[in-house]
Amino acid sequence: MSNLLVKKMKWISVLALMCWSLQAFSQSTTDDIAKYREMIADGNPSELYEMAGEELWKKPAGPKNASLEKCNLGLGPGVVDGAAAQLPRYFKDTNQVQDLESRLMTCMETLQGISLQSIIDAKFGEGPKKEMDAIVAYVVTHSKGKKVQVSISHPQEKAMYEMGKQAFYFEAGPFDFSCASCHGSDGKRIRLQDLPNLTTREGAIAGWGSWPAYRISSGQFWTMQQRLNDCFRQQRFPFPIYGSDVTIALSMYMAKNANGGIIQTPGLKR
Ligand code: HEC
User: Fold this and answer.
1) pLDDT value at residue 129
2) Ligand 1 first shell, C-beta below 6 A
3) For a surface tag, which of 41, 80, 195, 255 has the fewest beta carbons within 10 Å of its beta carbon?
């Protein structure tokens, strides 16, 4: 055998070994998370957020000293059960398609007199956004086990979905990334993270249906708005404005793709 061939074969086996160990390592990381999930299956740390959220929902607050108990999340004033499963949706009173966070902001503004800007401007996990996290945890828990059921029958809902689809495939930034670059095909993986294919129902329900979630690595509860914010960073895009149309449109796109799948919120993530 020539020297060159021996060298080539050596490299091929080294590369194969590297691929294999990476595979094995990533497998074990996934396993570890699964084990961790099992360990705390009866006690997802987001329960603490849910409890705080229930209190915040019922407690009079803001300049108008009112609770959120009359907040209409789409199924009537005060109805929390199953409401998150049908969001985003069109709301007549605001004449807007809203996701959970933007709808809660409307309730905080109209019922409690809290300024929207103070919520938008707050840092994630701090001040009014921290309260928002807890309230979101409370609301989504009441859709756990239900089916995603979003409608695009209203023209504005349809328009939002189309905008979300466009945004999902819109390539820009230093690497010409779109959401689809990382979430548009099966079997993608970044830094040992399995990335769901959000264009299929199976992938969309895995991704959309398991957020909001408690993140073990940061020890924090993240809403979908925060999840998206972080993916804009992954995409090397400027951060989107909290509750802005593009974030709602992307949620509409993912939720519609996930329609019929079972919701597993609050999720538990790396
Ligand atoms: C450069 C790659 C990249 C791009 C571009 C990207 N993401 Fe992500 N996304 C990730 C990674 C990595 C994770 C897992 C993060 C983690 O677990 O910390 C993730 C997680 C997610 C999840 C949760 C999936 C799950 O199963 O938990 C959703 C939903 C999501 N991204 C949506 C989007 C949307 C919408 C866009 C476009 C605005 C986008 N992502 C753009 C890399 C990307």
Assistant:
1) 95
2) 177, 179, 181-183, 190, 193, 195-196, 206-208, 210-211, 227-228, 231-232, 234-235, 250, 269-270
3) 41
